[in-house]
Design brief:
With 103 residues, the protein is of the alpha+beta class. The chain is built from 3 helices and 6 strands. The protein has one domain. The strands form 3 sheets. Strands 1-3 form a two-stranded antiparallel ribbon. The structure holds zinc ion (ZN) (2 copies).
Length: 103
Amino acid sequence: MKKIVVIGLFLFFGLAVKGFSQTVYASAKGEKYHTADCKLSGDADGMTLAAAKKAGKGACGVCKPDEHAKDKVSQCAGKTADGTKCKRMTASKSGKCFQHNKS
Ligand SMILES: [Zn+2]
Ligand SMILES: [Zn+2]
């Protein structure tokens, strides 16, 4: 019985950490944070959801980052102009962020 409680706690903390380590995108001056796929994120920097909230930023009403928290997010499969792998995260089925999805 004790073992089950320990496993339960372990799962709970694992999920909690995963939720707060979700990557969102916000520019330094922006008041909103966005998902990687949001066109309004522009040249925003990636940060954790926890960091964005700590900075006083709110969820974008267009891309609704909080509703995408459960989406399966992976690193973009596209390449940047200098040939390095794109660092943006995306929940898109194509496996590419909105910038690389265009082509
Ligand atoms: Zn947005
Ligand atoms: Zn990309």
